[in-house]
Structure formats: C-alpha cells, structure tokens
Sequence to fold (186 residues):
Amino acid sequence: MNPTASSADQIKALTHPLRLRILSLFDAERELTATRCAELTGESVASCSFHLRQLARYGYVERAEPRGKERPWRSVGGYSVRPDLADPDAVAAAQAHGQLYLARELQRLQEWVSGVGREDPAWAYASTQTSASFWATRDELDALSRELERIADRFAGRKEDPARRPDGARLCRFFAAANADLEGER
Fold:
C-alpha cells in the first residue's frame, strides 16, 4: 500500500524540488544510492543523502539490501496527498506541494510536447492529452479519484521485476487530475 501523506510534516517532506526529483528517479531505477542520485541530479552526494534520509523518515523510501560498500535505497511505491482538513498547516502544506507538483508535471508534459516530432509516430499516437467536464456528486468524484489511482495498478511489479515487462515496453508517465470547481467560481 502506498503511503498517504496527511499531516503537515508528512506533506512538507514531499514539498521540496530535489525530493520530488529523487522520487521520480525511482521510476526508471529500482534502487539508487546517494552517489547515483548525485550523478543524475547534479547535486552533491551529501545533499542527496540528506534528502533520501528525509524521505525515509516519512516512509517514502527505505533501505535496500547493501551491495558491498554501497547502501542503496528503494521507493516504497507512489504516494497520495490527502491533508487532514482539520489541520490548517496540513492544508497549507498540501497547497504548497500541489503547486510544486503541478509545476513539475507541467514541465514534463511541455518537454514531451516539444519533442513529440522526434517520437515514433505509433508511440505518439498511443499517447493522449484529454479533458472532460461533467457534473458529479462528491461521492461520485471520490469514486472517480480512487479509480484513477488504481489504473496504474495493472502494471504493478514491472519496475521491480523486469521479466514482467512485455517486449517493447517503455517507461511511461500517467498524470491525471479530477476536481470540482471551487464554489462560486462558475
């Protein structure tokens, strides 16, 4: 089960550009050392080590089996941010995380759009950008949100076990958002 960040401290642990970048590195690599993170990010080993420890403190990564002198880390999976709505600090932290997260995802999508002309046309056609507007109750929106979270579950285990990847599989990205308009904003 992926961790759910609900307290202000849990959410704040995710609200750092380098930590989000480090977490995204685990998308392509099962295990990472602080040295490997430094190579991939251009940051110092000490900085990467600190941020990996912070992510571990809140349950987003954990120590993997040592490999000789190497002390690798592995991701525990994705995460979900659901702030404790009774805690104003948790709500504020979720807003800060949301801004950072959306900026990162927008940058990724812009990079993909800019490079799509160099992509294999079949892979470009298999990709999508889509949106929909609809009227739903809070319970229906909640059900849709949980369903979106479960969509990627059908691909679970492929990162950890490359033998489970079909021939021709590539690392793919999934980003979705489902939300109601703010009251009075219609």
User: Anything to note?
Assistant: The CA atoms of residues 129 and 154 lie 21 Å apart. DSSP finds seven helices and five strands in the chain.
